[in-house]
Fold this protein.
Amino acid sequence: RQKGALMVKIMQNKVDLHTHSLFSRHAYSSLTENIEKAYDVGLEYYGFSDHQHDRFNFGADRHNFINLGVIPKSYKGMKIFKGVELNVGEYLKDYIDFYTKNCDYGIGSIHAYDHGYDHTTEENTKFYLEAINYPLIKILGHIDDGHHPCDYYEVIKACKENKVLVELNNASFKNDFRLNGPENQKKMIEICKELNCPVVIDSDSHIKYDIGNITLAYEHAKDCGLSDDLIANINTSIIDDYFNF
């Protein structure tokens, strides 16, 4: 089994839990292609997290999630986790029970198309804190997006207390629709270091070629002095502890 250059560069990246397939309507690879790519780049834990079905018709169809049982729990020894990226906020309570029944884990995120740019720091913080209380939510996704400011200390403290992983999103270094991603990740990392709070670095891939690619966010985290001991991509025991699968 070949290890790509990425794996050598960052020791061994074993984890990618924020990935999208064609079911998300704005991604470009099938789930089968993504699984095979995840294995090829040497991942040990692969999670797919297509967007929820919602009133915006932006995510996967509801029936895609009902039928997740047909997807194997492993592929050639690589563990496969069945997830969903959920929109946190006023409507989360309307969807959470359905996804808790059908998915292994959820990523709680705020998206511009759902909430716009008009929510306050206090409102966004409240959204995240409410999401953390749902057992399905195991990761908070791309909270570095400055379009949706929050109180990083309060949110990360709650993540630590509730065993929810703080995500460092690699796509925030590549996509100009996220505001001040690198700068905000630096703030997040400083708090994670202070609170000894684990993180997961995810690709947020929308095409198979990005599966497992966390180079930019990992290098930034190391530049900010984040220890590998706090990075779930290096220490899968963090995933085992937080996800309790």
Notes: The two ends are 26 Å apart (CA to CA). The CA atoms of residues 16 and 85 lie 14 Å apart. The first strand starts at residue 15 and ends at 16.
